[in-house]
């Protein structure tokens, strides 16, 4: 578990940029964005080799203990031992995930009007966090 941010206050039109280092022997890492630890609007989980997935990004949402349907992205711009820069753009109805050379959107299933919570877990070391 890496740092946990609360009271971020991210609203539609704002972006959160995360930079960090991926462990050389990484299996997977997670970034959660939501209202709090129980209401996650976006669970972003790049998997090098975890839960039966290889080089796949799995996204989901979580309402208390109830996970939604998994969404998989086939593009995988991450490398073990490399650095990563990921930007999450908050929109009215979804979150746009900007990756190196690729972007996709994930629906705001919980209809969150503000994203206050962010955390990282797994084989990722957070180096910087910025928002605008």
From TrEMBL:
* Keywords for this protein: Lectin
Source organism per UniProt: Catharus fuscescens (Veery)
Gene transcribed to yield this protein = Leg4
Every Galectin domain range? 2-132
Where on the tree of life does the source sit, at the highest rank? Eukaryota
GO CC annotations on file: extracellular space
Q: Which GO molecular function annotations are given, in alphabetical order?
A: lactose binding; laminin binding
Query: Which protein is depicted?
Result: Galectin
Determine if Amino-acid biosynthesis is one of this entry's keywords.
no
- The answer to whether keyword Nucleotide-binding applies is no
Pfam families per UniProt: Gal-bind_lectin (PF00337)
Q: Which InterPro entries match?
A: ConA-like_dom_sf, Galectin-like, Galectin_CRD
